[in-house]
Amino acid sequence: VYDQYVNFISLEDDMFTLKHQKSDTLSYYAINRGDVKDSDIDLLMDSIVDSLFSVFVNLGQVPIIRCQRGNAAESVGERLDKKLRENLRDTRNSFFTGLSTDSFAAGQLSFQRPLLVIVDRNVDLATPLHHTWTYQALAHDVLNLSLNRVTVTEQDAAHPTNRTKTKEYDLSNLDSFWRAHKGSAFPDVAAAVETELEEYKKAETHIKGLKSNLPDEDAIDLLSDNTAKLTSAITSLPELIKKKADIDKHMSIAMGLLS
Question: What pLDDT sits at residue 60?
Fold first, then answer.
């Protein structure tokens, strides 16, 4: 039996979420609803602590914890601190190699430890209600964006008058356009899509031109030169096809945001 400690989901290189498939049970509403019981809050706090513990087990580092007093943030901070110390005391099974509770007492922990700041959502309720018009924010607010996957409803080309269909697209850092423009204002995104489309059309025209302009067999040097260019163009085709798919994807998302 192996404990994997993967109670979190990394959405980006610098962002993770503690939510999972049963996200409604781990939410602001679940903690603050009027009929919540102490036992329910304890389960929620333990779930948050287990997830944060998993994050730092994977990092292999003990965090410096800072939190507010007198609210849920303090409860999470204290429980996480206790869980970390208990693991450090068990030197044979500790997940943090080379560290122990003696390291705390002697002040031998690295100065490069990560800082974990835990803040209660009640401190800043306005921010979740502030809807910006950046690409990522609009996709989340207007479309169904969850765990880096967005669902877009669009007209069915075969039946444009009375039928719609849904498509799902993955949005991750593997998508160079998304990586570059997720934080851009929507008008800038629309302009960038147009630019990408123009570049694709130029590349496509260039490849077609190479194919149609192959010289006669008598012109050996020109034939060799054009063949080399055509071979290079063919080699770049997979990348060009992927680029076209990304352009179509983001055009579909943009249309979904406008509709």
Answer: 86
